[in-house]
Amino acid sequence: MTIETTTTGVLALILIMSLVTLVTRFGGVFIMSYVRISPRIESFINTMASSVLIAIIVPMAFGGDAGALAALMVTGVAMLAIKKPLPAIAAGILAAAFVRYFF
């Protein structure tokens, strides 16, 4: 199946992607409304979030450029120092921008 990349085709693709996103998000909430949240399930959900984050970060640490490595290092150090995620992430973004702009 192909969709032309005209204005109508692009709008159709955006609509299809929006519907798929909504169905998956609402579907997950709907299905979980029938599941009793036991301590074991709660532990799984909390651990799953960490594993997704690690799955995103590890390839970037091994295959990223100097900006990515600077962002990881600065974010990690800032998180250990100030223990607040938003400023740590902002510092990492600034470090990546600095390295990529000047080096």
What does this structure look like?
The chain is mainly α. It has a domain at 54-103. The protein contains four helices and no strands. The chain has helices at residues 7-32, 39-63, 66-82, 85-102.
Detail the topology: elements first, then pairings.
Elements: H1 7-32, H2 39-63, H3 66-82, H4 85-102
Helix content: over 70%
Tell me the number of strands. 0
- Indicate the proportion of strand residues: under 5%
Biggest sheet layout: none
Question: What's this entry about, in short?
Answer:
This protein has 103 residues and is mainly α. It has helices at 7-32, 39-63, 66-82, 85-102.
Main features:
103 residues, 0% strand, 83% helix, mainly alpha
